[in-house]
Amino acid sequence: MNKARASMEHLYRVFTAPEGRESKLAQIEQHLSANLADFLSRHVVASNTSLEDIEHHFADFTVPEEPQFVSDHAEILLEKLVANSVNTYSPQFIGHMTSALPYFHLPLAKLLVGLNQNLVKIETSKAFTPLERQVLGMIHQLVYGHNEHFYRAHLHSANYSLGAFCSGGTIANISALWVARNQALPPKGSFRGVSQSGLHAALKHYGYEDMVILTSKRGHYSLSKAADVLGLGRHNLITLPCPDQTLDPQLALQKGLELQQQGIKVLAIVGIAGTTETGHIDPLDELADVAQQLGCHFHVDAAWGGATLFSQKYRSLLKGIERADSVTLDAHKQMYVPMGAGMVLFKDANASNAVRHHAEYILREGSKDLGASTLEGSRNGMAMMLYASMHIFGRQGYQLLIDQSIEKAHYFADLISQQPDFELITKPTLCLLTYRVRPDFIKEVLSRFPDKRDEINQLLDNLTVAVQKRQREAGKSFVSRTRLATGKYHQQVVTVFRVVLANPLTTAEHLNDILHEQLHIARQTQSWTRLQNLANQLTTSV
Amino acid sequence: MNKARASMEHLYRVFTAPEGRESKLAQIEQHLSANLADFLSRHVVASNTSLEDIEHHFADFTVPEEPQFVSDHAEILLEKLVANSVNTYSPQFIGHMTSALPYFHLPLAKLLVGLNQNLVKIETSKAFTPLERQVLGMIHQLVYGHNEHFYRAHLHSANYSLGAFCSGGTIANISALWVARNQALPPKGSFRGVSQSGLHAALKHYGYEDMVILTSKRGHYSLSKAADVLGLGRHNLITLPCPDQTLDPQLALQKGLELQQQGIKVLAIVGIAGTTETGHIDPLDELADVAQQLGCHFHVDAAWGGATLFSQKYRSLLKGIERADSVTLDAHKQMYVPMGAGMVLFKDANASNAVRHHAEYILREGSKDLGASTLEGSRNGMAMMLYASMHIFGRQGYQLLIDQSIEKAHYFADLISQQPDFELITKPTLCLLTYRVRPDFIKEVLSRFPDKRDEINQLLDNLTVAVQKRQREAGKSFVSRTRLATGKYHQQVVTVFRVVLANPLTTAEHLNDILHEQLHIARQTQSWTRLQNLANQLTTSV
């Protein structure tokens, strides 16, 4: 390896001249652009390399003293980083919400970096600011469907913003609840409100004992983070039981009234449109009624499910979302945009003024700088990715994508139900479902010996864990796993495979293969043998 | 324009096949890659197009119904978006902290999107997680210089994290103060701490009247946001006067003791290493003493100045930063990484456990998932950009970049001082400085007629605003402006040009040109004429 020298000439060249077409980095790029699937399947060595082994490649904790040639470094990136990455583009990678992306995002990513705009202020994002406002308007209209007059009045107004782009659903949820908190404890008379005077003074001023947020046990962990960050405390995120994976409005109402009687302010009810674990949707319309009855903010976390609104066939699943005071959506999930495209939207264009702030050198009063009412400061122009996607797919294209995902999930659920050695745990509402290996020989035993249920389920849990791990390590397919309380087993918590069928490249054949592989692995495990022994023992002893 | 059809075949192609080499998008990409400066100078129509005119291009608020061909859309992006963007790569764009980036980030941005990893959890970022931990370790070592044993024990440990990557300095500052708040109000006996029980209960439990953060008036506006979000209230961010642009340790100590006597808890002192407006650095070592005396958290916001640590020549400017409990740095500033690479670091590897959280399907206890102690959830692999930069530049390369920026700022400050019609307002500590047009004929008048000082400074303010706007609209050069209290005029607030000299492509000639253009514009303004009249009037009347 030649040695690079740290000189201004060398640096100047790095800033002004691209690598030659024959250079390693250019080769990587060409391969990526020409055939991403091939690039990944050649370079990502999906393997059982342990994490500890990978860590050895990343063990140095000192900044390298001397410079390196770009091409030498590109070689290292390939060997150390790409080789040990996860092939999220693969149609057999159906374990998480990260999937294949359309090709046009590759050159667009480059354009984004080439333009390097900063959306915190107009002066560094002249056209990107109006573009982002337009994109927020489009999604706002998709969710709320306000009339033309509303959008004409607010879309590009310096005094309003319909929401904010942010790095992801977590920041969106925090932003929504931040706005809700500041609106619930506003300035009044000589009191300057929670935003200025803090939560302690505000609760005292308004005479509240405490402040809580209601959601179901399936609420995303970011809600607990939000409760912590915003000063409410994680304990004040009340997560109600949801035996059927969705929040019971009556239970929420009852709990809310009970808390109110204790002098506790219910800040918000959070409904979920597409839970992370099973893809269920809370009864949003009824929860909107409950929020109204309790006089609290209604937030909908539609980070996953929001894109369903593109589908005329399935959008009714989210009925009531248009009554939410705020909504979280992630374009990097079912809108197939690269990571980093979260959004929060507010029904009322005035809402985000509850967190508005100014500074001298930017965000001057009356400016249209987007940074004046966002939690984040400097931000890149990710809105362009969604802008391009909405134009290239169109609503119709997104509808096709959403519909085929949901229908694929129904197909897979049917397929699982037909297998004697598998058990469907949660049916798909959107394109998520959960299931487990449950050998046919144990099925009857499980229902015949209720006092053995815990023991059997424990063995089945071990089996599921073992299969999930080995399948992941084999590197061909990936499903994730989680633990769920299920009505079927009297709310016993069981371990399940979790599948997200958002990758449009996943076919029925892939799904068949995945089940075959799982069964094949399962039969070789100790847990399988133990279950067999237990079944034999129980049925013989009877 | 042909019409695209929404069909699964069409969509499948968008996910599996790149645009042809002759397509518009491919052409854009080739041009970008071959010569970024040329691409931008041809397509960015730096112009006086008004924001309102641009907004007309982005006025539609409905999701387009029908799909569009990628190439048709690429054409639209060029015409509407790129044409009206800001050329931040240009060496004459010296008004903000956004500058030219090295070329290798263009293909790397593509690789990042192609890999589409999600760093919230190992399962979707197998190699990126260790890489990010390594990068955090390198920067940690740069700041704190702990010994080898420390890094070997903590770098890849599931029980610790040395900090977090995040979208930017704002999230980093909030994260740091979140940790500080939770550490200051910890669980104790049966009390479960602020994280679980909330700020209201915690302040009561610990018997504090209130909780405040101390910083100077030059503290970034994100600190005020942090005070709001975290429930302290913006009013409880105490911003102390700083006539010389830096925080006086004695003043901080005095204020802190005074507050403590009132039963108010001083949560943290925030020192700034590179203020956004003038690039000044607080006396960090002395502030560390004060924090120690007050028994509070010491946070350093080094979003801008942190990269100075790469320079052996200038790193002593930040002496004392190694005593900070937490530090914010932005790699997308002086480390020349694309937007979205903020970091927070903690001296104590255990600190971030004050905000640790778990969830069933990810972030299981004992896992190395980075998401367990970050404010954000899903995140992309931006750490790769800094990893590559640190290897390709090396510490030596970064030192050259930092040194030449600072030295260029000194050169420019001298140049301004030599011009009879300009006035240097703040000298550079790092590569920022502020100045204004102050015609020679008014200089003497300004000192001779103290009772006219306000009036003259008001006219000079108008002059600076007019020149800054017209220069920006002319589209050749861009400096920003802000308002500063300056000791020279008895703390009167004056409007100044603000210059950030981070772009390595900016030459002495560019700087000369910028001054010439400003003077040329200034002479044509009404303010110039009014100042002339006033000067004549005053000197004649004497």
Kindly describe this structure.
2 copies of one chain form a homodimer. Chain A has 542 residues and is of the alpha/beta class. Helices cover 45% and strands 12% of the residues of chain A. In chain A, helix 7 packs parallel to helix 14 (383-418), helix 9 packs across helix 11 (221-229) and helix 16 (453-474) crosses helix 17. At the A-B interface, helix 1, helix 2, helix 3, helix 4 and helix 5 of A face helix 1, helix 2, helix 3, helix 4 and helix 5 of B. Chains A, B: Belongs to the group II decarboxylase family. Chains A, B: InterPro entries: Asp_decarboxylase_pyridox, PyrdxlP-dep_de-COase, PyrdxlP-dep_Trfase, PyrdxlP-dep_Trfase_major, PyrdxlP-dep_Trfase_small. Chains A, B: This is Putative pyridoxal-dependent aspartate 1-decarboxylase.
Task: Extract low-pLDDT stretches of chain A.
Answer: none
Number of self-contained structural domains of chain A: 3
Based on secondary structure, the structural category of chain A is alpha/beta
Look at the structure and give the mean pLDDT of chain A. Answer: 94
Largest interface: A-B, 183 and 182 residues
The amount of beta strand of chain A, in percent, is 5-15%
Tell me the name of the CATH homologous superfamily of the largest domain in chain A: Type I PLP-dependent aspartate aminotransferase-like (Major domain)
Give a short account of the largest sheet of chain A.
Answer: 7 strands, mixed
Q: CATH class of the largest domain in chain A, anyone?
A: Alpha Beta
Modified residues (N6-(pyridoxal phosphate)lysine) (chains A, B): 333
Family (chains A, B): Belongs to the group II decarboxylase family.
InterPro entries (chains A, B): Asp_decarboxylase_pyridox (IPR022517), PyrdxlP-dep_de-COase (IPR002129), PyrdxlP-dep_Trfase (IPR015424), PyrdxlP-dep_Trfase_major (IPR015421), PyrdxlP-dep_Trfase_small (IPR015422)
Cofactor (chains A, B): pyridoxal 5'-phosphate
